[in-house]
# Entry
Amino acid sequence: MRVRLVLAAGVLLASAAVAPLAHAGGADGLSAGPALDGPLLNGPVLNSPVLNGRASGGRAADDLSVYGYGTVGADSTVTLSGMYRCLDDSAGPVFVSSTLVQGNRSAGIGGTQAVCDGHLHEWVNTSVVKDPAYRPGAARVRATLMQLTAGETGLPAPGFLAAEDAAVELR
# Structure
């Protein structure tokens, strides 16, 4: 129970802090367009300066991208996805959190524990959101790659490794 509370608090903190940290989706080639049905294998997503393992100076870097689409099921299940890379989780667990924004409504959509081995991984977050339900059409996803580390008081504190704010098309 305590672990769930800590994880929930971390995801909520990450969701609240994404907006000021996020950059415009697509400006750096990391966000896929609305018509994309998955990651580009030889395009801007995987061959971007960051996700191909070369940040400035040839160093690999923590990073995150959001696919240009999400799904809304008949039972109001929302699924969002993208790709991430993180290098080191020795200071604490790393999570990919996502928030879906459509109109004046926003909701946290799941959270995925990251595997920090320096390789690209796909993340998929799912949640049932019913009151009111999301509809197919334009929306935004705010995603964060967040690490929980022990603060001075011993309580977990979020550290933000990467953030993405991207336009998506809900199907």
The first strand starts at residue 63 and ends at 66.
